[in-house]
């Protein structure tokens, strides 16, 4: 048996229509899985699914909404007969000093980055029970471990999602469900293109501080995602694994 084979497994990747989500979805497809990319931007999602081939499809879902998450899981199990993997990757950032956030901005970041994972995992749980188990992967950040002046709600959400994931790992281990987090470093995506223009010196910081000496690319996350979704990780749960070119271990 190949412990990294995902043939016959069905996955949902939130925010899978671009960036890191698409990088991980590509890894799952290449390992044999059937993948539903979930997001709001249907044009981007349909194009991404077409690129990935016949085992990929796109479903429109705003994962801040409970009904949308329930519908996403229902539609996936109806179409593919089962659900084995939930990757909670959708995320946004709003960069300001703590004193400048409006409550709506704080709530938007927490809803998208943290509450969405609660809604998606709660929706997935009954389907996982029917499948005899499941794999949950949530996406933290360098900002799970570190902090910066312009990241108050983002860092709070990324710290919270790891603790949420650990709670799931303890609660659902008895159901053969493993829940782990990936902590990406600085990855070149739409999100960080925006950050580069808003945070002075970011590019220089990333290039000099990252021992690997480069920005990550979405494909860098594919292998870790496959590992955490495959039988290879059946005794791995509640962990939070950095994938950051060494950024967070540099003193
Ligand atoms: P992108 O902006 O490229 O992707 C974010 C994705 O989230 C988009 O596909 C977007 O889809 C989706 N999304 C946002 N809001 C919602 C919503 N309400 N409902 C459904 N989907 C939504 O950013 P990245 O790929 O960089 O980020 C992916 C994840 O990785 C995020 O959680 C981010 O915090 C995290 N991360 C990124 C790092 C980096 O350096 N890039 C570093 C550490 C963590 P749509 O366009 O359809 O709304």
Q: How many distinct domains?
A: 1
Profile the largest sheet: 7 strands, parallel
Bound ligands, named by name, code or SMILES: NADPH dihydro-nicotinamide-adenine-dinucleotide phosphate
Widest beta sheet: strand line-up: 3-2-1-4-5-6-7
How far is the N terminus from the C terminus?
41 Å
CATH superfamily label: NAD(P)-binding Rossmann-like Domain
What would you call the structural class?
Answer: alpha/beta
CATH topology: Rossmann fold
CATH class term: Alpha Beta
Unreliable segments of 5+ consecutive residues: none
Question: Helix segment count?
Answer: 9
> Beta fraction of the residues?
15-25%
Task: Explain what you see.
- The protein is built from nine helices and seven strands.
- Helix 1 (19-30) packs across helix 9 (222-229), helix 3 (66-80) runs parallel beside helix 4 and helix 4 (103-131) runs parallel beside helix 6.
- The N and C termini lie far apart (41 Å).
- It is 47% helix and 15% strand.
- Strands 3-2-1-4-5-6-7 form a seven-stranded parallel sheet, with helices on both faces.
- It is α/β, with parallel strands linked by helices and 251 residues long.
- It has one domain: 3-Layer(aba) Sandwich (Rossmann fold).
- Bound molecules: NADPH dihydro-nicotinamide-adenine-dinucleotide phosphate.
- Residues 14-15, 17-21, 39-41, 44, 61-64, 89-92, 112-113, 139, 141-142, 184, 186-187, 189-192 line the site of NADPH dihydro-nicotinamide-adenine-dinucleotide phosphate (NDP).
